[in-house]
Hints:
The chain is an alpha/beta fold.
Amino acid sequence: MSDKRHILIVDDDPGIRVTVAEYFAENDFTVHSAQGGDEMRAAVAAHPVALVLLDLHLPGEDGFTLCRYLREHTHAGVVMLTGSQDAVNRVIGLEIGADDYVSKPFDLRELLARVRSVLRRLQPPAAAPAAAAQTIHNFGQCALNADTHTLRTARGEEVVLGAMELDLLLAFIENPNRVLTRDQLLNIAHNRDWDPYDRSIDVRVTRLRKKIEPDPSSPRHIKTIRGAGYLFSPDGG
């Protein structure tokens, strides 16, 4: 089980690694660093981490490849560090499982806030008494356990949802049969001001559909309302 204050920064720029490590250490985090894929894999094997700050543009294995590895082998949160013009790459990063992204050059205070936000969402609530009922949301062929952040999918699989995925699905569940615009969903699920060019909601809707819809190409639960946003139908009608 990883320490929720233990993070890893993966960046080939030693100046960034040192600066971020020192700043986060001053804010009571334990920080390890790696300059590439081999060092990252060794680090997560030796010291299970709660979150990885992952540079997109790395020599050799790029951030996309390493993000896939982290999603397949760990439960760590992933915040991608991208260039300010990397809009398409940010979307791809979200598609393959990143929880959030921060554009370079970044403000250390913003980076810290983003990391804390992702960790807060990833951290399950404190253990409740054994007799207490867990918070289960059933819809269609799926069941979401909001306490453990796990989803039983339409195919009977059990998966752990990323922080932003969980928030987005809860936003839909808590607002059934109601059209929610993209800016409303961004505010609810991302705690971020709306950017008209931000496609992260569409990306996460696509990912959720693949997990909860019997046929993602013809969604019954998360419906697109053209020109307005999305509508969640619990019964799939």
